[in-house]
Amino acid sequence: MSGNFSVIGGRAARKDAPDKSTGKARYIEDLKFVGELAGAMLQSSQAHAKIKSIDISKAQALPGVVAVITAQDVPDIKYGVSPARYDENLFAKDRVRYVGDEIAAVAAEDLATALKAVELIEVEYEPLPVLLTVEEAMAEGAPWIHDEFPDNVCAKVEQEFGDVEAAFAECDIIQEGSFYSKRQDGAFIEPNQCVALVDSDGVLNLHSSTQVPHYVQRTVAMVTGLGMSRVRVAKPYVGGGFGPKASATPIELASSFLAIKTGRPVRMAYTREQVFLFSRARHGFTHHMKLGAKKDGTLMALDHQATLEGGAYSSFGIATVYYAGSLLGGPYKLPNMRYQGQRIYTNKPACGAQRGHGGVIARGLFEQQLDLVAEKLGMDPIELRLKNMMETGDVTCNDLAMSSLGMRECLEAVKTGSGWAEKKGKLPPGKGIGVACGFFVSGAGYPIYRSDTYHCTIIIKADEDGGGILLYTASAEIGQGSETTMAMIAAEAVGIDYEQVRVKSGDTDFGIDLGAYSSRTTLMTGHAAKEAGENLKAMILETLAQELGIEQSRLDIKEGRIKISGDPVDFSAIRTGYIKEHRGWPDPPEGDELTFREAARLAYLRRGTVVATGKYKPPVLGGKYKGAAVGTSPAYGCSAQVAEVSVDFETGQIKVERITDAHDCGQAVNLTSVEAQMQGSVSMGLGEALFEEVKFDSQGRIINPSLGEYHIPTVMDMPETKCIVVESGEPNGPFGAKEVGEGAIMPTIPAILNAVRNATGLVLDETPLTPERVYQAFKKQKKE
Fold first, then answer.
1. Under a CB-based contact definition with an 8 Å cutoff, are residues 471 and 435 in contact?
2. Is the pLDDT of residue 302 over 90?
3. Is residue 510 classed as helix, strand or coil in its secondary structure?
4. What is the pLDDT of residue 717?
5. Which string of b and e fits 460-489 if b means at least 16 CB within 10 Å?
């Protein structure tokens, strides 16, 4: 256990473990409501077409159908993720823009009837040219997918920091390269599901498997016109998110409208195929980089161009195209950087945010280029990175401030932990070792929409009998362990045992929390939990001090005991009062110290219910240039990985045998959870490096929309993984903590790429690294 903590830094059992391990956990599928209807959605079979007519008469006439709604039945209000790019309507009005675009929704007495009604809806289409690639969408004369966005450009970024051309003129080494990646799916186990109902107060209650209850509440309130106070969003247990569940979905909106129209609960859920159709997952990227260095290895300049294939709608796309450039500002000292990025609309499902949002493939190419620079200079790749590493207190050329940075320690840890010196350059043919670094935000510095709102609030209530505390948070536990983290932080702040904290989360009635995205929960919600705990502690100690007639400064709570400094104090009257009240509660306390139980009970008797609150929003961050808000964060997580691979020259098959992984999380709150997040990142990065690709036919239909055809890593694919936790002590984090949720994926792909090049000599420029692609690269290598 690190630091002078009683709870923080340990290995607490997860709060949700008993329910999940015994099957008691209740997901949306387990929630049942009296009189509920089944909802189903009609989605476009065309990738791009005008809608000439929609005939719902046969569906309405089907016995068991209660309601059918189309664009004519809902307000003409556009929505999306960023107000700067609201480009979606719940139902297509004049045309459809991808296979899966929503046209109508049905509510019926059972799902079979709802699905049959969907089949009976007749839509007449007038086909339009289908644009499936960036090249097709940008071609001269190509039709505009959205009339408001000429030439199908969703967003464009042009930034320069320093003097890039002057810096290149001083360089001894220039390295250029390109990289191409395919779009991926989030592959969460639980498909999106929801149930909407209107209660007796006229409040729309939406139960949803979301990772952002607040943003869903805001979108539903805006599109329905109900207002925030008339919409409640509650999140039960969720089977994974990873980013694609970080915005409102058509089923959440459609079920809300159907519930309002019918006056009955309406349940809607995506099939696995519909999860692929809705997407909002990883973009396909094209990156080109030019990197310059001096002969001593000093990095001088980076010139970077990126093009993102974004699909039919914006989703998180504006942030994605900025992140692809801004996160390359660290963790190396890079005084001059130019970035030009653009996101292009196509007639495919919309892409959005996924673990390591925007930065994963850009980091993949950058770290590959660093290895090539090191080779040209005759330097060890780790030494090149260490030479250029930023330190705590440094500020990047694009104004990202390093309030803590354990990157050097991470690199040195994986160098030692992997046996780098004994293996690099000494492995047999077909065996390789590679290194890479990662860098990511620990919470977005600003909300998605312009607002001065707090990013999170917490309510903590002391139990009436003093037995513990109950913490209310609107934050989203989606499997990452945030309830456990908040309980540990609150326990440390109050001074009680972890087992004395209960947590209720994921409900907008509990306050505000922007959600589980941008690796924000530990730092931001953790700050609010810490403040609420400290405030509760102060209220209890203030009451106790008044009762004892001493200064409050003499009192503290540690490990559930009241600590009194200075002269002895007679607290027998308080204890006698507690024992006198004892009626079937746990045995009265014993010993020479008052307990938290006695003090909290006294506070209740004197003040009534003891409730404290906490809140957090970041200070003003970043520079003043256009786009400076994207990439700003109160803190930055960093990581390093060494990958060891074997490559079969005959088949092109790659096997990742070992990963040595070090991550700077500032301060581990729960060591077990930190290591689990590191392992999960390795697994997801491994899948994106070797297997994962959403494939389409020539008409824009997905041809592998299932987890049988879309290959994600299994336990059989996972390498031996060694996790090393580095703690730099983040001054802007609660008890020194910062992110580990997303940043740990950043080095995985480039570490594998560099290890494969070490094994084969191949500079591979396209993922996934399927055996076919690697084999063809071998053939090309032999021919050349």
1. no
2. yes
3. helix
4. 96
5. bbbbebbbbbebbbbbbbbbbbbbbbbbbb
Distance of CA 284 to the CA centre of its chain: 18
Query: Parallel, antiparallel, or unpaired: how do β-strands 122-127 and 49-55 relate?
Result: antiparallel
Q: What local confidence, expressed as pLDDT, does residue 784 receive?
A: 84
Burial level of 703, CB count in 10 A (0-12/13-18/19+)?
exposed
CA distance 491 to 468: 9
What are the structure tokens assigned to 439, written together?
């860098």
Q: What is the Cβ-side half-sphere exposure of residue 727, based on CA atoms within 13 angstroms? A: 17
The pLDDT tens digits for 455-499 are 999 999 999 999 999 999 999 999 999 999 999 999 999 999 999
Domain boundaries, the chain: 17-25+454-616, 31-128+188-241+245-278, 284-345+357-446+623-783
Q: Which two tokens stand for residue 660?
A: 């040595």
> Taking a C-beta distance cutoff of 8 angstroms, is the pair 522, 739 a contact?
yes
pLDDT at 337 over 70: yes
> 117 and 68 in contact (C-beta within 8 Å)?
yes
Percent of the chain with pLDDT over 90: 96
What distance in Å separates the CA atoms of residue 656 and residue 652, rounded to the nearest whole number? 13
Q: Decide: 660 and 434 in contact? Cβ < 8 Å.
A: no
> Which residues have a Cβ under 8 Å from the Cβ of 64 and sit 6 or more positions away?
108, 109, 110, 113
Q: Does pLDDT of 652 surpass 80?
A: yes
- The tokens describing 160, both together, are 């320069």
What is the spatial order of strands in the sheet that 173-180 belongs to? 153-161, 336-345, 299-311, 284-293, 173-180
Quick one: pLDDT band at residue 2, thresholds 50, 70, 90?
low
Q: CA-to-CA distance for 99 and 700, rounded, in angstroms?
A: 6
Whole-angstrom distance, CA of residue 86 vs CA of residue 71: 17
- Listing DSSP states for 634-668 in one string gives S-EEEEEEEEEEEE-TTT--EEEEEEEEEEE-SS-
Backbone angles phi, psi at 657, to 5 degrees: -95, -40
Length of the chain: 784
Q: Is the four-CA dihedral 219, 224, 225, 229 of positive or negative sign?
A: negative
Dihedral through CA 92, CA 94, CA 98, CA 100, nearest 10? 30
Give me the mean pLDDT over the 107-124 stretch. Answer: 98
Strands 231-234 and 204-208 turn out to be: parallel
**Cβ(183)–Cβ(244) under 8 Å?**
no
As a whole number of angstroms, the distance between CA 565 and CA 637 comes to: 39
Where is 458: in which H helix or E strand?
strand 456-462
pLDDT of residue 1: 41
Res. 312: pLDDT tops 80: yes
Give CA–CA dist 236/190, Å, rounded.
12
pLDDT over threshold 50, residue 612: yes
Q: Does domain 17-25+454-616 have CATH number 3.30.365.10?
A: yes
3-state secondary structure of 285: strand
Domains 17-25+454-616 and 284-345+357-446+623-783 are alike in CATH topology: yes
Contacts of 272 (CB under 8 A, 6+ apart): 191, 705, 706, 707
Q: Would you identify the CATH topology of the domain 31-128+188-241+245-278?
A: Aldehyde Oxidoreductase; domain 3 (3.90.1170)
Q: What's the CA gap between 439 and 141, in Å, rounded?
A: 40
Residues 6+ positions from 270 with CB-CB distance below 8 Å: 191, 192, 193, 249, 251, 278
Pairing mode of beta strands 336-345, 299-311: parallel
What is the three-class DSSP state of 92?
A: coil
Distance in Å from the first CA to the final CA of the chain: 56
Secondary-structure class of domain 284-345+357-446+623-783 per CATH: alpha beta
Q: Is the peptide bond before 768 cis (omega within 30 degrees of 0)?
A: yes
To which residue do tokens 């031996």 refer? 720
Secondary structure letter of residue 784 according to DSSP: -
Do the bridges between strand 37-43 and strand 65-69 make them parallel or antiparallel, or are there none, so unpaired? unpaired
